[in-house]
Write a structure and sequence with these properties.
heterodimer, A: alpha/beta, Rossmann fold, Dimethylsulfoxide Reductase, domain 2, 3 domains, 20 helices, B: alpha+beta, 4-stranded mixed beta sheet, two-stranded antiparallel sheet, 8 helices, about 20% helix
Chain lengths: ~575, ~250
Amino acid sequence: MSDALVVTNEGRSMKLTRRDLLAWSAGAAAGLIVTPIPWKILDDTSIWSQNWPWIPQPARVPVEIIQSHCTLCPKGCGLRVRMAAGWAVGVAGMKTHPISHGALCPLGFGAHQLNWHPQRLREVRHRGNPSSWTEAHAAFAKAKSEGPVVIIDGYPGRGASSVFEGFAEANHGLYRVVLGAESRALTPYEQWTGAPALSLGYDLENTQTIISFGAPLLDGWGTPGYVTRLWAEKSAGADDPQLRIIQIEPSLSRTAARAWKWMPIREGSESALASGLARVLLEQNLVAAHGPVPPIALSEAAARSGLSEDAIRDLARVLVERQPTVAIAANENPSVAALSVILGSVGVRGGIVRREKIERAYFSANPVIPDARAVLIDSSVPWDFVPQTGAEIFRFAAWNGGLTNADWLLPAPGFLEELTDVPTAPALPVETYAVAPALAKPTYEVQSAAQFLAGTDSNLASTEKIIHQRCAELFRNRSGTLHGQESIAIAKIESVQKLEERLWKGAVWVGEAPPPASLRCELKEWPSETTPAHTTGWTNSWDVPVLPPLASKLYIESSLREAPERRNA
Amino acid sequence: MSARYGMVIDLDRCTGCGSCMIACASENNVPSLPQSTARTGLTPLLVRKVSNGEKGERQREVFFPIMCAHCEHDTPCVKVCPQQAVEVDKATGIVMQMPQRCLGCRYCMTACPYHARYFNWWDPAWPKGMEKSLNPGVAVRMRGVVEKCNLCHARLHTAQEKAAAAGKREIDPADYVPACVEACPTGAIRFGNLADSNDPVSKEARSPNAFRLLAKLGTEPKLYYKSQEAWVRALAESNPARNSEVQHG
């Protein structure tokens, strides 16, 4: 066959010349362009490679919508969870929720992805090495038998919190809480009113002016839907709004950008400015209160804050134009709290009110824990709480937040993987109660801190039992309203089973707030200044150490927020 | 009667929280690939921050949610597409993108005056197990195609199916709400039928404070913005994609 190609009719062998080769190549190239075969191969290859069998495709299964509550942080926003094949496939806000009004923070919208986050804690780890629940239980039982145990809770008021308290009481241990920034801002009122900070809230529905000293009011402060709805309805875009928000902050934050008025001040001068304002209010008799006069001259307040004395005087007059006026600090700041007292906004409608009659105060956790054999840290405690102790540390967490000196890292249930109750969110003016059932299958072998403790002490009541007890108590009190698909007074609910049924289906109980005047406040002397911790929007005030991948991605790809990677760089 | 779906975004109500972006990406199964950057990532809805350029107390910022404006007239992306992968749906006015037809030439991305189109540079992927959290109503798009906001078309389908099951021809407007509208905590993003003069959104679109970006191009975008602040309205003839801090590829 090959001979036939090189033999001519004349019987002489044909030489392949350079010209022949070039002509053949040109012909082949031209043919290649007009023939569809290579293009078809290319096209089919790309289509084929676009649809590799391992490229994930969503399951074709029916979707069910379930009402519940978010438990990622203590704000307890109402959720509409889209469930498919036992997994959460989408999250949206519950429009009928009486507090959050269908709003969620950005993290909430991607929360259903968090259970598969690469930083999810998947196994028990002991000093960096894989271990087991059996070994963790044994180590904790040994520690418990040898000395006191301190339990740290970042989300007090839950059924799990009662388990912690019960364990600490039965075992001569201590129960301590780590409060969020909103609750810490209310702690100065404890000593002036005698009411625990966790029983206090802001009646913002009836407030006319808010002076915020760096509190990220429109960026995840309090229950996001509660504050943003008020702002949208009463303030947004209006020249003379019903609700005036004055933001005192060194930089143009998201809240400052949308506030009625933004006053940039020098970093760390919030206390000086609050004291200066109180001095002007008292000296110029702009308020009914008398003393104590802050020990700071107006000139000093002006010098430290970077505002002029006239600007401070003008601001003081603005504060009393539309009252009630509430001063809100970003964190614990006694001077800002005292300004609210001088403005007469404690124990009044539209001011700082008492939402419930609890008398007991929680003890805040001090990172220095000297006399303990073991410290158990619940998964609700922020990762920036790092105990300084020689005790053995048992740290529960759903996601690995990185910075820890814990001996034991124990995987806790993730988003919607655990039955829990949802007590009143920080800073709310009314009491609320809801239940968040376990909707998603646990992704890994996890235990909550309450389950872990129940495993070491059979006398402890389970979280579920405590939730049943609380429902029975709500039913007995016959007070407040249950908000679900419809609103119904508790007094009209036939049985505790019916009440539980509604709560399990996403209803929320809202209590009746005591009259504002039941909170009395006495400020004997002007508080000394403190330097509160810096607080920004929700990414800093949150107990989840990781963001949903979509949130991280969109922060990187937009100019909205600094991505955590960049912030930590 | 055919609808003309569109949006009015009240910029005075936008706090720039970003919930709309995340709700959109979650609804539409947008992958969060670690290698994607501001130039290469997929963001069918992107909130951009624009400053008034002043300093100190006079400085102001506004947040612009940018997405496909669903241009009605001489739709630039439709005109340049060699594959008929983009078309304006006559029944809804939604500019539809069909990934199966797209060959990835990206002419439409160049033609779009709003920089609201994105290219799938990589195969869609999620961290192990996270595929269980994908929205069953939306197919993932393949590598090598362009995508953009389609006003949550899957939700329109669901509403149409519901109406058909009830023997109705028209959908209940409450059944068709895009994810970003549902997610906005302040009600800044409003959605409705611009062809219906009684629709509240249609009325808002005709208010004196409403404006459209680059309206001078004559493409009749169905995405309106609204603000009481004059400096914000003055941005109407500019492109926030160019004015904001992040430039997109």
